[in-house]
Each structure stands twice: as C-alpha cells, then as structure tokens.
Fold this protein.
Amino acid sequence: KVVNAAGPWASEIGQMAGVMIPVFPWRRQVIVTHPLPLIDPFPMLVDMDTGIYMHKESDGLLIGWADPDQPKGFLSGIDDDYNRTIIEKAMARLPLLMQATLLTTWAGYYETTPDHHGIVGEAAALEGFYVAAGFSGHGVMHSPAVGQVMAEMIVKGCAETLDPASLCLERFAEGKPLKESVVI
C-alpha cells in the first residue's frame, strides 16, 4: 500500500505510478508585521470580498492572500508587488495597518485541486494507491481526520469515522467537482 501525501508534488508522484492526480502548486505569499496594539484575543479574519486573511502572529499580524492571477506552478521567491497588493488590500479592511512595519515575508505553495477540495481515498485506477492531497491550505486543519480515515481504509478496508466518498479522486473525471464558497 502506498499513500501519496506529497502536497504540491502529488501530481508528479501520481504520474510515476500512472495515476493522474489534478493537484497543482500555487504560490501563496504572506507578510508578518512588527507588534501592533491589537485586541486580545484577535480573531482570524477573512475578507470575503478580496480573499485577504489575517491572524495574530506573536504580537503582530500574519497577512496573506491568494492572488488569482498567480500562474500555477513552482514559482519561487518573494514578489514585492504581491506584498504591496497584500498590504493595500489589508489596510482597506483594517486601517490600523497603516501604522504597521514589515517584520518578515515568505512564500510557499498551496496544493490545489480544480475545486479547491482535498482528495482522500484509494485511486480506482491502481489498487493499493491512496491519495491524501490537494487541501488548498487546509491540510493542517484536516490532517487529524484525514489520517484517521486513511488508516481505517488501509487497515480495515473502509473508512468508519467519516465517509470520504465525496473527496474521491474520480469526482474530477466524472464531472462532479465540489462547490467551494470561500476560496477565491
């Protein structure tokens, strides 16, 4: 049994096994500010109009955004224009950020599927080949449940805790993608 949990490289691993997996890397960039006078606790905020998200990071804020114009692929490095756009969009939502100074910034990859939902389960095309990938930034949040379900499928032959059928790989070939209302 093999579990492909290779994140943004899941498609490449799938190709090695002869299984098409529609997971692609998408660069995400975040900035972190120096400390700011914030309410405590500071909630995670998501601006549904722009997709900007922010949450407390130490005594400052971590601010991120998924630029819909970013091409898919393994783009590396920091894009200063991307940072300026993040800051401008965030200041429109939280004017306090006009007082902020940049502490650090980094970029990484989201592993994204066409419908922005993860793939969980055994690939119908290859017995014993399981996929747990494509969570569009939600992997850490979903990992306890996905780990449990994957273990049940491998050890017991079926998932018992949750039914992952709607997250099957085959939904894309069958034209049955899921609806995602939060990812822009």
